[in-house]
Amino acid sequence: MSEREPGVAPGVGVPLRQRLAYLAYASIAWLGRTLPTTTGRVLFRWAGIAAYHLLPRRRAIVAANQAQVLGRPVDDPFVRDSTREAFRRYARYWFDGFDVATWTEERLRRAVAFEGLDHPHGALAEGKGLIAVAPHAGNWDAAGRGLAIEGLPVVAVAERLRPDALYRLFVAHREALGMQILALDEEGLARRLAEILRANGIVALVADRDLTGRGVEVEMFGGTRRLPTGPALLALQTGAPIMVAALAETPTGWRVVLHRPFTVEPSGDRRADVRATMQRIADMFERDIAASPADWHLFQPGWDP
Q1: What is the 3-state secondary structure (H, E, C) of the chain?
Q2: What is the mean pLDDT of residues 264-279?
Q3: Which residue range is the domain that position 137 belongs to?
Q4: Total number of domains constituting the chain
């Protein structure tokens, strides 16, 4: 195995924190592909419960986010229960994301309940591509593989992880699920995404967190937070419609709701168009997240204190 192949552990000179991140990811990937589904889900949900109790700072962050969504005090019993469930579901997400790579297409079809699957097919019939956006919720690995099986493969954008060995492992996993991955910091990214859309492809963006610091302010759950501008800018540049997706866990699989796509009509005020478009997306995210708050994998501060 060469130095550039996925799966090669980082060598000397890589910071310890990055090496540990690689080892953790590689270990979870191995467990996800090795353990039987029932056993793995039980073990990982236990791990989620343990993390809830052993990580007080992270628990406080998630509790603050859940309180914002639920509109209750952070010490409310309902918020506490939802926070605990968020940890359990996030742990299951990590196992399931690798487990589904070993499933047959028929098994995945039975586990992923799509609603609105006619929407992306109808949008692509117009020939302008499709911008699919979703929050960090449910399991986008399972959803991505499910779309690929349905003849709707997506090109996704992801943060470049460190070290490089970890990023290569991450990309190899997503490609095995039928997705193409482009790095957020890739030179000419916007141009490449526009080309994909003009070729009638699907660009999938997880768009509930601003990773660049250049996002736009929107209102969500009674507070102001920033979302990335990519979906709006791509829609304005290419004319491609935007489709918001809602993802949630079910006892045995996942529910994926594909909302009716909408187009963005330029008004001549680009900044206002971007803000209005991202607020529309935020409103749809808000409704979907409110339906199942514990499925939102927001483990970073969601709003300013």
Answers
A1: CCCCCCCCCCCCCCCHHHHHHHHHHHHHHHHHHHCCHHHHHHHHHHHHHHHHHHCHHHHHHHHHHHHHHHCCCCCCHHHHHHHHHHHHHHHHHHHHHHHHHHCCHHHHHHHEEEECCHHHHHHHCCCCCEEEEECCECCHHHHHHHHHHCCCCEEEEECCCCCHHHHHHHHHHHHHCCCEEEECCCCCHHHHHHHHHHCCCEEEEECCCCCCCCCEEEEECCEEEEECCHHHHHHHHHCCCEEEEEEEECCCCEEEEECCCECCCCCCCHHHHHHHHHHHHHHHHHHHHHHCHHHECCCCCCCCC
A2: 97
A3: 16-295
A4: 1
* 110 has pLDDT over 80: yes
Residue 222 maps to a domain: yes
φ and ψ at residue 135, rounded to 5 degrees: -85, 170
Judge whether 286 lies within some domain.
Answer: yes
Say yes or no to pLDDT of 82 above 90: yes
* Residue 198 CB contacts under 8 Å (≥ 6 apart), including other chains: 128, 129, 238
- Split at pLDDT 50, 70, 90, the class of 239 is very high
Does any domain span residue 5? no
pLDDT (tens digit, 9 = 90+) per residue, 114-141? 999 999 999 999 999 999 999 999 999 9
pTM: 0.94
- Among the listed residues 284, 268, 265, the one whose alpha carbon sits nearest the alpha carbon of residue 227: 284
Nearest partner of 93 among 28, 155, 145, 156, judged by Cα: 28
Rounded to whole angstroms, the Cα distance separating 99 from 66 reads 28
Does some domain include residue 300? Answer: no
